[in-house]
Automatic annotation (TrEMBL):
UniProt keyword list: Carbohydrate metabolism, Glycosidase, Hydrolase, Polysaccharide degradation, Xylan degradation
UniProt-listed CDD domains: GH43_XylA-like (cd18620)
Record InterPro entries: Glyco_hydro_43, Glyco_hydro_beta-prop_sf, Glycosyl_Hydrlase_43_Enz
Keyword Cell division: no
Protein name, per record: Xylosidase
Stated family: Belongs to the glycosyl hydrolase 43 family.
PANTHER family: ENDO-1,4-BETA-XYLANASE (PTHR43772), PUTATIVE (AFU_ORTHOLOGUE AFUA_2G04480)-RELATED (PTHR43772:SF2)
Length: 445
């Protein structure tokens, strides 16, 4: 495997959110620990400025959740021989479900003829790796590889239409396949991993009316309980990852709540899609956050979660630290690591080509979770461009403000009053002007 990893295009990233280098937008992440011990994330690959996903996949992997490898292209839509599918997608759904599909499933006219690849999943079975994918015409398929990161080949069309396929292998070796939008479907796969009996499909495993199900099926088993993670619309847009549980892989499933909500990651965020995985005995939720004042350019993020004694999962907030430690004194924190934005402010590409916080209006807020120092902090130094007023809050307390007009501004504070332990840092914009923020550093107490 070490030899194969030489084919990786990028080795970078880290434990903090977002975990991958900024040029790689991998949303809809299905996280899988494969037989080689590495964790692999299979997701879409955002490349378009005005629509979801692209015509290719790239797989990200890690041995320690800290150093990440983004592998070369693993599969391309142009290699799918049946695209476009003449059966169509929206026509296979009930009339009252088509509006949601038209908005988020079917591409706009400029991409109608493009072989876009939407959210995938992959799994190992008897030494082979199976990639399950869906396309912008609503068709679904499976391709194979001898490597967890591809390339995947020999695509075969499945006898279903929809989006967001997911696969699960139970303890007895039986394989299950899930897919759908607004109503989740599930079925047993046969021994080939590439087909099923259409008469055995169970529809309505989860529904929009009963479970808040929007899309993004993902199934895991913890103990004797089956967990169905999905894009949850209970709070309006499908910005939540919710979950339901059952004692059977084909239900019935009982709605249990929200694991994480990405509302606030960007002014235009609309959806979420992800999974849960256990790495080294610790469970994590894998989700995405959008950027650039858009629904797109979504990035992989990770948070640790806890499975309670009663099987429930407590909701966790988005953080900047991710699976790493809280940010400490002297550590430079880039503006793009803000985990929650309030107002018009967003993470965007500047004229210089880097990414920073920009587009702010008076009253906007950028939140970073978390910072920590038993000795406290004495100052915060801000790298900015343009002019405006910035107030800093630590753990909800105002610690200082500055009228920025240049590249570096420093706010001094009485460090003995601010021994922050796992505290939230918030930057609040007053008069914003053309202000943008590259990053900041907290001074030691």
């Amino acid at each position: 495997m070490a030899e194969n990893l030489k084919n990786a295009a990028t080795v970078a990233g880290g434990a903090r959110n977002p975990v991958l280098p900024l040029e790689h937008h991998i949303p809809d992440g299905e996280a899988r620990v494969m037989p080689d011990g590495r964790l692999y994330v299979y997701g879409s690959y955002d490349m378009l400025a005005d629509w979801y996903c692209s015509d290719r996949y790239r797989v990200a992997s890690t041995a320690d959740l800290r150093e990440w490898t983004v592998h070369d292209v693993s599969f391309q839509g142009r290699d799918v021989p049946w695209f476009p599918d003449p059966r169509g997608y929206a026509s296979s759904l009930p009339a009252d479900a088509r509006s949601g599909v038209d908005e988020e499933g079917m591409p706009p006219p400029q991409y109608a003829s493009e072989p876009l690849l939407y959210a995938p999943d992959a799994i190992e079975h008897r030494g082979e790796y199976f990639l399950y994918f869906c396309m912008s015409d609503g068709s679904e398929g499976v391709a194979k590889s001898t490597s967890p990161f591809g390339p995947f080949s020999q695509p075969r069309q499945l006898s279903c239409t929809g989006i967001d396929p997911s696969v699960f292998i139970d303890d007895d070796g039986q394989v299950y396949y899930y897919w759908g939008q607004l109503s989740a479907k599930g079925v047993r796969l046969d021994h080939t991993m590439t087909s099923f009996d259409p008469d055995e499909v169970v529809d309505g495993l989860l529904t929009e009316s009963t479970h808040g199900f929007h899309e993004g099926s993902s199934v895991r088993k913890i103990g004797e309980t089956y967990y169905f993670v999905f894009a949850d619309g209970h709070r309006g847009s499908a910005t939540c990852l919710g979950y339901a549980t059952s004692d059977s892989p084909l239900g019935p499933f009982r709605y249990r709540g929200v694991i994480i909500d990405n509302a606030g990651c960007d002014p235009e965020t609309l959806n979420n899609h992800g999974s849960i995985a256990c790495v080294g005995g610790q469970w994590y939720v894998f989700y995405h956050r959008s950027s650039r004042g858009s629904r797109y350019f979504r990035r992989l993020c990770i948070e640790p979660i806890q499975i309670q004694a009663d099987g429930s999962i407590r909701e966790v907030p988005m953080t900047s630290q991710g699976v790493g430690e809280p940010f400490g004194a002297g550590e430079y924190v880039e503006g793009f690591r803000a985990c929650e934005l309030r107002g018009r402010i967003r993470i965007d590409v500047s004229s210089a080509g880097d990414e920073r916080l920009c587009g702010a209006a008076e009253g906007d807020q950028a939140i970073f979770r978390y910072v920590s120092s038993s000795q406290g902090f004495s100052s915060i130094s801000l790298d900015v461009e343009g002019s405006g007023e910035i107030a800093a809050y630590l753990g909800g307390e105002l610690v200082g403000h500055v009228s920025a007009d240049g590249h570096r501004q420093t706010i001094s504070m009485e460090f003995d009053r601010h021994p922050a332990e796992n505290a939230e840092l918030m930057l609040r914009l007053g008069r914003a002007g053309d202000l943008s923020i590259w990053g900041w550093t907290l001074g030691a107490g």
